[in-house]
Amino acid sequence: MFLSHLTQQSAAVVMIQFLPSSGRSLFQSTKTQSTKTQSTKTQSTKNQATKSAVHPQVAQVAYPTSQVSPWLSPLAYFLGRHLILPLFFGRIAIAGQENIPKTGPVIFAPTHRSRWDALLVPYAAGRCITGRDLRFMVTVTECNGLQGWFIKHLGGFPVNLKRPSITTLRHAVDLLVNGEMLVIFPEGGIRKGELHPLKPGISRLALTAEVNNSNLGVQILPISIDYSQTNPSRGTNVCINIGEPIQVADYISGCIKKDANSLMQDVGKSMQQLSDRSFTETNL
Predict the structure, then answer these.
(1) Residue 220's closest CA among 200, 195, 234?
(2) Is residue 16 part of a domain?
(3) Which regions span the lipid bilayer (predicted)?
(4) Which range in 60-64, 68-72, 130-134, 221-225 is most confidently predicted, on average pLDDT?
(5) Residue 275, CB-side half-sphere exposure with 13 Å CA sphere
(6) What pLDDT, in 10s, does the model give residues 81-129?
(7) pLDDT band at residue 42 using 50, 70 and 90 as cut-offs
(8) In terms of DSSP H, where are the helices of the chain?
(9) How far is CA 182 from CA 10, 185, 241, in A?
(10) Other C-beta atoms lying within 10 Å of the C-beta of residue 187
């Protein structure tokens, strides 16, 4: 939902060249000991200006900060699972939970029909099911004020839709390198009705992580979340279908644009097939 504005140059050149295989920060600050000589200060100023000119977005955006609170996260998802969702929805049918990888880096790729999706994904595939926390990438506007505080302490982190920074992408790659489960809505936002064209950013991110970290084993898990009503209201039924994981390594040929398009096509095809099953193969 966030990488739609990445150009081919920023994805293929910037991401591949500047995303190293280790978990180190993309741009480590080089601190030099302060001296009394004016020449050293002048050189430092020139270096700072050069970095800002080449990568202005990196110079202006701080490294994303988010953490999974050891008390808030379990409490929030407990209330969502046992109070909020059961009180609002009619029935929630889930199929395919056996397809959720137990270990290793995973990118969840759900359809996005409602804001309720953010609670339904953890309900179907979060800590209560897998014993693992989910990390969400959300828009900058959703991370303001009290809501932003909650999102960040539930493991979410912001991205600027119009100007996604390299530091945000680096953070996402680091999460995958550390074996985390990352949730990205590939349609680019809430879309009503049928599946909309997917943004290629999710596949580029997955390929970047896999290419720069040999044998990482990144997987993309297609998910469909469908409601019995276009605009969910109290009593609406929900059908969640989880597909088989797609191995990112199988799509690496050396051309990131071609590989990303091929991977995204298969992810979209799987999401569409899962959505077509809704309310037909489940007991709703």
Answers:
(1) 200
(2) no
(3) none
(4) 221-225
(5) 21
(6) 999 999 999 999 999 999 999 999 999 999 988 889 989 999 999 988 9
(7) very low
(8) 8, 16-18, 38-54, 56-60, 72-79, 85-88, 117-125, 127-130, 145-153, 166-177, 201-211, 256-277
(9) 21, 10, 18
(10) 20
**Residue 86 domain-assigned (yes or no):** yes
Pairwise CA distance, residues 107 & 134, whole Å: 10
Domain total in the chain: 1
Structure tokens at 19: 């995303």
Range of the domain at 237: 63-277
CATH code (residue 95):
3.40.1130.10
Give the pLDDT of residue 281: 57
**DSSP string spanning 130-150?**
HS--EEEEEEGGGGSHHHHHH
Residue closest to 63 by CA, chosen among 29, 105, 33: 29
Could you tell me if residue 36 is inside a domain?
A: no
How many angstroms separate the CA atoms of 104 and 158, rounded? 23
- Contact between residue 58 and residue 27 where contact means Cβ atoms under 8 Å apart: yes
The pLDDT assigned to 7 comes to 37
User: What confidence tier does 65 reach under pLDDT thresholds 50, 70, 90?
Assistant: low
107 in Cβ contact with 223 (< 8 Å) = no
- 197-206 pLDDT, tens digit per residue, is 787 788 999 9
Residue 245 makes CB contacts below 8 A (sequence gap 6+) with: 99, 101, 106, 219, 220, 221
Does residue 79 fall inside a structural domain? yes
CA distance 7 to 133: 31
- Please give the pLDDT value at position 284: 55
